[in-house]
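Pasting as-is:
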Amino acid sequence: MKKDVDFTNADERQKEFLTALEDDPGEGGELLKTGMEELKETIMAKVAPPPALPLDDDSFFYISCTADDNERARRILSCLRSENCQGIVSPVEGADEDTLRKHHRANLRRCDVLMILYGRAPELWVQDRALEAWQVAKRRKKKPMKMYVYDLPPLKPEIGIALQNLGRWQSSEEFSCEEVRKLLRTMSGDTKRPTP
């Protein structure tokens, strides 16, 4: 439905139906409040996701997270390290806000793979990080940036954003290094990547 639809004069049953639909769109359902072009992009992203780009041996990972998910991010980095991957976790303390922001922007410019952790982070924070990365990725001349929202338990609804190079990885179990290996295989487009 349109973002700015006014239901003040609507029938009471319609209001109740829409409220119920917003609260629970049903399993696999999704209520979008958007314009027609955004709706088309969302549909196309779901039916024709972008092909997996091969993962280079020297790919650099940037794990962006809130303070609440920092411990999980460091465990993911440890698993990436055990798979001979390079990476960095966004710092969440130890510097002023401006310094942290500059560090985040520098990591966005240098990373090959951005992982946005969607564990305890609010949906708005995840959307902001994805949009910011998308803007940086558009300016790249050579190597494209892979972007993933890593949805950690408890599973949440769709984040309400569809970007061409943004994938979503849902982990139904509590985090493990095996989950990271599966994600690496998915990123590589290689389901037969050996595990150590």
